[in-house]
Amino acid sequence: MSSPGTSRGRTAASHALLAVLSLVSLFPVYWMFASAFRERGDTFDQSLVPWPLSLGNYRYVFDSLDVAGLLANTLVVAGVTAAGQLMVCLLAAYAFAAWDFRGRSVLFMAFVATWLIPFQVTMVSNYLVLSNLGLLNTLAGVIVPNLCSALAVIMLRQHMQAFPRELLDAARMDGRGSWTTLWTVVVPNLRPALASLSILLFISAWNDYFWPALVLQRANSVVQLGIRGYLTAEGDDWGAVMAASGLACLPILALYLAMQRQIIDAFVRSGLR
Amino acid sequence: MFVEFAPGGAVVLPGGGVTVTPGGAAAMPAGRGQAARPALARRVLAALPPYLYLLPGLACLVVWTYKPIIEAVQLSFYHWNLLPTSPRTYVGLENYRRVFSLPQLRGAATNTLWYILGLLPFSIVVPTVIALTIRDLGDRARSVYRALIFLPILVAPVATAAVWRWLLDPRGLVNQALGLGHYNWLREENTALLSILAICAWQIVGFATLVVSAGLTGISADYGEAAQMDGASRWQATRWVTLPLLRSTLLFMLLMTVLLSAQWTFPLIDVLTQGGPADSSTNVYYLLWDFGFRSLDSGLASAAGIAFFVVFAAVAAVLVRLADRYSFADN
């Protein structure tokens, strides 16, 4: 077959290819932080390593932008959205996985099909509904329309279908109702799946852009809009803009450092987002 | 499947059991000791639980997805500027006629096609090449690379836009590295679309590589090795054994790229170019957004939305059929 020489050559080529791709992937993120840590006056400095390091840009950002408020709002939106989606979709997936009922496949298709429907087709009507409910410019207006996620229903149903039937049968023998069974048998056994799904939903909600941009017209609401406003207002102050952008990504990057394996697996399994 | 919680089982009534009776939720787990009730009521109760569990999700779907679609269809026959005080005028098919005759829209559709074609190499070709190359790397090296190439998809879209705007700034690093002087990538008709495309490719290529890699791990390496034992070259084994087994993954990526390219590029367009200069970087969804919320032409936006939705759904249906036809060989 292949001699050790060519196989070593191939390994070297693999490493080279991946190293290039990794560098391309990483560099803009590095550049964001490198630009942020330059001194205030060095805005257009292009040296690859920022020196001397300075927190001046961060100090400026904290003075000119309500960073804590933006992060807190985004945390609320992403946290409540993810928790709500998890709850709503857990119940729906349970219905699909545990019962045979009339209309099951049609209803399941109704969930899956929402994945196909672009947000831009429904946005005008939803905007009007929120406006009638007085939810424009509120965090609730960002959260409520997103409470059902087709992706979460599909993934949870898959996990539940793989669930050992004996456990459910045993629960039924014990005379437990379906509600008790869900919380005492199903949920504890699905904990890893629920954990990775909730991270996925949280990250998606954190990085969501369209809907918050539509509902919250003020820039001082969630980080995505905060940076967009900042980008317009501060124009060429790249050090400050990069510092603000870095702060907006920081919670997600920290989460990624802590649990990158689970995060990658959850994203890859879910397909694209 | 555990069907029977209640005595009598979940015998589904003809006509379904969607009626929600008051107190149904409370009665559901117990469901016993109802001998006195008429059999029909008991059977309705027994059939009820799955529908109750579905209720919150279904309510969301109806309120936020299906009802709005119907309303969008209705709006597409009217002329209305979204202001509650101004009247809606029925205009029949006028909006649809405008959709198909607006040069702006034709331009956006062409751009969308370019975005899709431009992203396909980065969602399918490059990822497949890389995934095939890295198959045999050691676990540790692979997990380091995985972590690095996955990173871009996690960066918030607005932060991505910001850092790339800085990189592509006339005085930014890209111009300096290429020695191009003060070229303004995002403000020139020739390069605005290309820049957005490049940024979007940067966001998805590592992620797509991991999806294809995951598809590859589902395929036993034995097949390829067996083919090589039989005298096939490495390339032949890949081309005739591995790639065919990978096609459901690749079709899936194709479907995603076709359907979602316009979504992926949307925030970048909004933050970086607003579709300009001279509409050279806009796409169909961005134009919709523009009609609906900048020009406040809700009828036109709805008509265009419905039209695009129908086109995309037709493409998706064809691709799904292809996937079905070709995926039987996988098992």
From TrEMBL, chain A:
Entries under CDD domains matching the protein? TM_PBP2
Which intervals hold domain ABC transmembrane type-1? 71-259
Which Pfam families would you find in this protein's record?
A: BPD_transp_1 (PF00528)
- Name the membrane topology term: Multi-pass membrane protein
Query: Where is this protein primarily located?
Result: membrane
**Which key words tag this protein in UniProt?**
Cell membrane, Membrane, Transmembrane, Transmembrane helix, Transport
The cross-references to InterPro entries, in alphabetical order and at most eight, read: MetI-like, MetI-like_sf
Would the keyword Manganese turn up in this protein's UniProt record? no
* Leader sequence segment: none
Biological processes, Gene Ontology terms: transmembrane transport
Q: Where are the transmembrane segments?
A: 12-33, 70-94, 106-129, 135-156, 182-206, 238-259
One GO cellular component, as annotated: plasma membrane
Where does the UniProt annotation locate this protein? Answer: Cell membrane
- Family stated for the protein in its record: Belongs to the binding-protein-dependent transport system permease family.
Report the protein name in the record. Answer: sn-glycerol 3-phosphate transport protein (ABC superfamily, membrane)
**Which species?**
Frankia canadensis
Please spell out the taxonomic lineage of the organism that makes this protein.
Answer: Bacteria, Bacillati, Actinomycetota, Actinomycetes, Frankiales
Name the gene.
Answer: ugpE
From TrEMBL, chain B:
- Mind telling me what this protein is named? Carbohydrate ABC transporter membrane protein 1, CUT1 family
Where in the cell? Cell membrane
Query: Is Lipid biosynthesis among the key words of this record?
Result: no
Show the GO cellular component annotation of the record: plasma membrane
Its family remark reads: Belongs to the binding-protein-dependent transport system permease family.
- A Pfam family found in this protein is BPD_transp_1
Q: Which PROSITE patterns does the UniProt record give?
A: ABC_TM1
| Species of origin | Frankia canadensis
Record's bilayer topology term:
Multi-pass membrane protein
Q: Which UniProt keywords apply?
A: Cell membrane, Membrane, Transmembrane, Transmembrane helix, Transport
